[in-house]
Design brief:
Elements lengths: L2 H17 L13 H46 L4 E7 L5 E7 L2 E8 L2 E7 L11 E7 L2 H6 L1
Antiparallel strand pairs: 1-2, 2-3, 4-5
Helix pairs in contact: 1-2
């Protein structure tokens, strides 16, 4: 339901509340209805106050939303530069981190692989009886995340 639908509904309710007032209180039959007039007018006053309160809340919300939109549009104009960071694992196991600013390379970092000597049980043992060693790459995820 839009803002205008709410305003139209509140205007309809207030006009209906005001039209239920009994104006002829001179006759004997309407003396008892005089209390109804006072009751309905009290109701109309309360309803009018609530309607005014709702209208002021809606106006405040509209003002807040327009100010937020203006702040967003002004902040988006300030952030003209586009910064993008790409992290790529190269075939040799090294990590390449490239930062682009407005489509051009701003900085580039290469992190070499960390090689660890591990036993290779598929290869024949050395003459001393020790298992053969092979260099194994260890990917440093901490370096990838920290860079």
């Amino acid at each position: 339901m839009g803002v205008w639908d709410i305003n139209a509904a509140t205007n309809l309710i207030s006009s209906m509340a005001q039209s239920t007032l009994i104006t002829d209180t001179n006759t004997a039959n309407n003396i008892a209805a005089g209390n109804v007039v006072n009751d309905s007018s009290d109701y109309a006053k309360i309803l009018a106050e609530k309607i005014a309160e709702v209208d002021s809340n809606m106006n405040n919300q509209q003002n807040n939303s327009t100010s937020q939109q203006e702040n967003f549009s002004s902040s988006s104009e300030k952030a003209v530069s586009n910064i993008e960071t790409l992290r790529k694992i190269m075939p040799d196991g090294s990590i390449r981190i490239v930062t682009y600013k407005d489509g051009e390379i701003d900085s580039e970092v290469k992190i070499r692989t960390h090689l660890v000597m591990t036993p290779d049980y598929s290869a024949p043992p050395t003459p001393e009886g020790e298992p053969a060693l092979k260099a194994e790459q260890r990917l440093s995820l901490a370096a990838l995340l920290m860079a």
